[in-house]
Fold:
Amino acid sequence: MRTTAKLGFRFRLIAIGTCAAALVATTAQAQQSADEIRLAEEQAMKTAVATIAPSVVRIETFGGLERVGEQAIAAGPTTGTVVSEDGFVLSSAFNFIQQPSSILVSLPSGKRAAAEIVARDNSRMLVLLKVNTEEKLPVPEFVDPQEMIVGQWSLAVGRTFDPQRPNMSVGILSALDRIWGKAIQTDARVSPSNYGGPLIDIRGRVLGILVPMSPQGGDGAHGQPAEVAGAEWYDSGIGFAVPVVGLLTHLEKLKQGESLQPGLLGVRLKGNNLYADPAEIAVSQANSPAYEAGLRAKDVILAANDRAIDRQAQLKHALGPLYAGDVVKLTVKRGDQQLDFDVTLTDHIDPYEHPWLGLLPMRGPVPEAGGVPVRYLFPESPAIEAGVEPGDVITAVAGEAVADRAALIERLVTQSRDEPVQLTIRRGEETKPIELKLATLSAETPGELPPAVPELPAVEGEQPKTGLIDIKIPEEKNDCVAFVPENYRADLPHGLVVWIHPAGGYKPETLEGRWKVHAERDHFIVLAPQSADPARWTPTEVDFLRKTIEATLDRYNIDRSRVMVHGYQAGAAMAYLLAFTQPELVRGLAVVDSAVPRLAPVPDNDPINRLMIYSVAPTGSKAAPLIEKTVERLREMKFPVEAKTIDGDSRDLSSSELGDLLRWFDSLDRL
Amino acid sequence: MTSDWRLQHELRFPSCQIGSERQVRQERRIPRLFSRWALCMLLAALSLAVVRPDRVAAQTSFADVVDAVQPKIVKIYGAGGFAGLEAYQSGFLISAEGHVLTVWSYVLDTEFITVSLDDGRKFQAELVGTDPRLEIAVLKVPAEQVAFFNLHDAVELEAGDRVLTFSNLFGVATGNEPVSVLHGSVAVKTDLAARRGAFATNYKGPVYVVDAITNNPGAAGGAATDGQGRLVGMLGKELKNSLNDTWLNYAVPIGELVGSVDDIIAGRFRPRSEDDSLKKPTDAHSLATLGIVLLPNVLSKTPPFVDSVLPTSSAEKAGLRPDDLILFVNDRVATSSDTLRDELSYIDRLDPVRLIVERDKELLEVELLP
Structure:
């Protein structure tokens, strides 16, 4: 360490010297001094690499998996960085994804020694190895991120090409505080040739451990294991390294074999714009650290560990580097009060489960006295058990009046599931309290349904055009038509079915035949977007699909709680992609003969943006086993899923099966 | 003989010596510079004794370097242009009479090879000769008094040295447009032969791995120089490192090529025998000859665990035991049962086999005598 300090001093002298010289030099001499600087830099870089070299070890792995998911695994070798002299080495989790049966580390002495993984940092995707050796390993100097400056030299070092010599790549520090505060960024070439090695400064001190990383993270759900997320960016000019200083405080824990997990809070914030919306809690999930510490819905988080939070992104940044077990001080505004809470973050939050009364509300005009009239009761539901009857009007939850369905659902979401909930209902002239325990939202298909809308007075004035309507998105070349039923009226919120055609396209004239009767009876509009190439959909067309929905929402009176995307095979795959990437638009997903496509990132079950799924598998379809797995996994994630099978090989729904689906669609606004 | 030939041509074409004139001029400037920068430069030079005065003297700006190098680079057009195969590559002049060094590839597999010089002149090139082992070809164009690199003046670099590469990558330069210049550093100098089977190439010698993305389509045959424009290496074909599934950016040191190029030009090229380390002996070792029985090979990457050792075999005599995991064979890594079998097939039955095995988390070395 003393040598590096001296070296730094020398280098400063050179820098001062060359700068001073440049001031007095003529143009030609200025050229000369630029050359001097370049050579001095080159030499300093070589010295820096020579300084770190003994702490950069080569790792060889033996055996293990051939491929993980879609990813073929190469045999190595890879790199590690010494962190403590008693044989501990940090490396990238990427290097061990094949779960090798044996790991060898080449030591500075040239000897090889067996090593094993003692713990992992699952937040930053690092592993800690213990090397079985008596040899004292040289520990490098680590730089505190506070001292780092964007633009400073940074060299990526690995030991994969040659056991005797490290390989290096020259770059600068491109950014600090990346990937929600977990990583720093460099334009040095970062790849499997140096993952696990150090990113060093020009004095040979460690800025961080090189890793593949992606802002989206990654897990099985994203079709890509978290260990390799971001590896597709290798050598691209965007490389990441994890600073070690913050990690050193946890080093003892890791040495004991305790892995580190990302720290979770357990709240859902209101609004979807990370960069605009304040951090107001929409749901403080029961049993989560936030809830246990006393945080509640409507609290606005103002600061995390005294770092001011104006927008949600800042909270994500503040929490990103923290591990499970870390305590974060949250300052919140509750009404006029400002309160502090110490929250101990956790490594696991149970998936959210939506509340369930087991009834359908009436639609159409809200009763003058307010409240939610009951249209239908699901058999064996909490509501029917508690004695609720069709025609009853729910007027309050836990003593607080509810004006309409939206208010009722907002109240239900924040109720505890363990304690009984007080509902107030109005039956005729009578008002009575009932008590029930909320269950978990069921996706079951209801039986025959009574009309959702009472008799309405005839409409007056001019009504919009009905039938097949072109929906044109100016900047997109795709076509899209909407089928608007003849009895459409602008004063009545309609449902919206976004039907995504399968590969091969469709003829817009055929829409009416399939949808007319249903659309008039259940009051919904059918939107039928077309792929640019009739033969196939491309995933990027999701953006076009979103725009068609938004255009329809602008133009027609649509009930946002009854927007469903529906498709068969390729259309269903696009439906998955659309529903999973546009959670604020889509409430229902009806898919026929398709599992979750690989590209679709499965979101968490969201308390605010509720999504219900109707999955149909033809028994003879090749995709049937995968569909079954999909359903199983979605249910594990607590998504409400209605799974149906139909006879025969791959095929779309028959007209009676479509009738079943549309009964389910007509109950999307269930509570 | 070679050096005589070189001298002659340099005398005849003084225009090719611009670089050396500049060098002389700068050397003269040195003492004056030192007196002005007195203390600080002295400090710098003392503390970094490795910065040798001659290198300091020869430094020029990248702009000057690029100007001096570009006339020596050529674009080569030939066969290809379908199925994702580009019909172009790069090369550089290596004699005043128009000899061009480039990579041997399908692009040259045609009667009509067109070479486009930096000044826009186009020539039909003659294929003088090739060395398939080094994957190089020498062309000749009927141009005279051209600027060229003298292969015998090429320099060697080490990791951390700056590199400039000149090539027509992706064919972006057309007509008399200068080729693209990329800037990077030497990542490491390494031997492609060090890991058998890692690289699908005939060339098995040392390479400079570069940390810039230099080896893209069309770049092969381009020149790599140091920061002063002195020739260092030739950019190789696109190559994937199968050990970690990444593309390799590299240049072949000129020192590896110069002998063969001289022979091709002199018309006395003889194909050399293959690299010995790549040849399998007729009678090689195998698991059976050594008396080793491995665990059944159920997966393609089953680790080579010893299941049993045959009595009186050389394995038993050497002390190999069941459950030992074999990691290295004569210092070559055995990542699986299959690679172990393959490695043994390279060892002559008359030679001893040195194994490094893992036993109870310890590494042991055992030597099996034939």
About this structure: Residues 1-25, 218-223 of chain A have pLDDT under 50 and may be disordered.
